[in-house]
Amino acid sequence: MFLEKLIKRNSRLVDCAFQLHREGKILPDTYILDLDSILYNAREIKKEADKYGIELYFMLKQIGRNSLIGQELMKLGYQGAVAVDYREALCYIDNGIHLSNVGHLVQIPKAAMERIIAAKPDYVTVYSYEKILEINEAAKKCGRVQKLLIRISDPDSRLYSGQIGGFHSDELEELFKKIDKLENVRVGGLTVFPALLYAEKENKILPTANLKAMERGKKIAQEHGYSDLNINLPSATCTASIPLISELGGSSGEPGHGLTGTTPLHKYSEQIEFPAYVYVSEISHCFNGRSYCYGGGHYRRGHMENALVGTERETAVHAKAVAPDDDSIDYHFELEEEFPVGECVLMTFRTQIFTVRSQVAVVKGIQSGQPELLGLYSPLGERLEKNW
Q: For residue 358, what is the domain's CATH number?
């Protein structure tokens, strides 16, 4: 999906990937994260956000909840992490990364509640009053008051399958009254998801229909007497979308694919962020005039299209890549012609590394021409003590 942009704008990452494969320092089915480019992108996004007074919570599930990256982002002055599920939150707690938003998109289960609330997250996103009561009880035990982000989902909202949940705006007044009676939680803000998305026809990031629910919710919150609420507008947060967040009255965003220059906007237009990861595989075998490379890193919404095959960038060959059917396991990816067994294969498709079985290699010094492999990680953010 992003291969041409990668070659054009970050050829040093391509060279590094071929080198690490040639030297046997990584196995096939490894994502390489270019630390230099991620931090450059992060600085540019934050610079724009600071101009508009927008808080940023970094989202790292796309690149495998990587704690090393998270620690570097904290050094840049990022507020903290958004943990979209409880396991991610626990990973960040174990690695000393501050939690800015927990519970969006997955609520905190009861058994993990006290440990996560004790870590003092800035906000917990909630979908139900029952969960609010659990948070209140855990916060009481921890001796603190927890701020909540209320997720609003109205009948005209556009929600993704597997991510259904929220309060209807016409429930909010009664909900606010209930929360006001609790001693250890308070309403800290409102959120919807997705708030912004790339629109291919206009070739820009635009508000979604979910902003209608947000406007209703803001009005009710104001009438109830709430002020200075965090209006959280996640999805597609990057340098280009920061002014829109501000225009829509937002106060926080959550850069994820923006940090790696891999939102759909980055495919179809030149943006300030550079593509900052590449997927490395290797030709396993050939059959009936086609090649098959090792899989394991397939994300079904990744829009895999092309591959670069060879041993170095100058002589590598472009090939059409075919992902397996969605009802099959991605043991291999198919290339539409034959290549020598053992050749390196590079691909750059949209991913969610925490959903795959790949390894993750974090490399610094790529942009200065002195790449250094800092470590290998599981797709769930665990540092691996051995290479393989």
A: 2.40.37.30
Same structural domain for residues 228 and 111? yes
165 backbone φψ class: left, alpha, beta (φ>0; ψ -120 to 50): left
Q: What angle do CA 210, 216, 220 make, to 5 degrees?
A: 145
Q: What is the domain extent for residue 163?
A: 35-260
pLDDT at 300 over 90: no
139/116 Cα distance (integer angstroms): 10
Q: Is the pTM of this model over 0.85?
A: yes
Count other Cβ atoms within 10 Å, centred on residue 273. 26
Same domain, 201 and 226: yes
Residue 27 covered by a domain: yes
Strands 99-102 vs 80-83: parallel, antiparallel or unpaired: parallel
Res. 89 pLDDT band, cuts 50 70 90: very high
Looking at the structure, tell me whether residues 27 and 45 fall in a common domain: no
pLDDT tens-digit series, residues 326-336: 889 999 999 99
Assigned token pair, 363: 């490399």
Would you give the end-to-end CA distance of the chain in angstroms? 29
Residue with tokens 């999906």: 1
Between vectors from CA 165 to CA 187 and to CA 304, what angle results, nearest 5°?
A: 120
DSSP 257: G
Strands 123-126 and 146-151, bridge-based pairing? parallel
Kindly compute the dihedral angle of the four CA atoms of residues 355, 382, 358, 111, in this order, to the nearest 10 degrees. -20
Please indicate, yes or no, whether residues 105 and 230 belong to a single structural domain of this protein. yes
Q: List 49's β-bridge partners, or say none.
A: none
Residue 182 is part of a domain; what is its CATH number?
3.20.20.10
Question: How crowded is residue 47: how many other Cβ atoms within 10 Å of its Cβ?
Answer: 12
User: Does some domain include residue 376?
Assistant: no
SS3 76: coil
For the chain, the domain total comes to 2
Pairing relation of β-strands 196-199 and 204-207? Answer: antiparallel
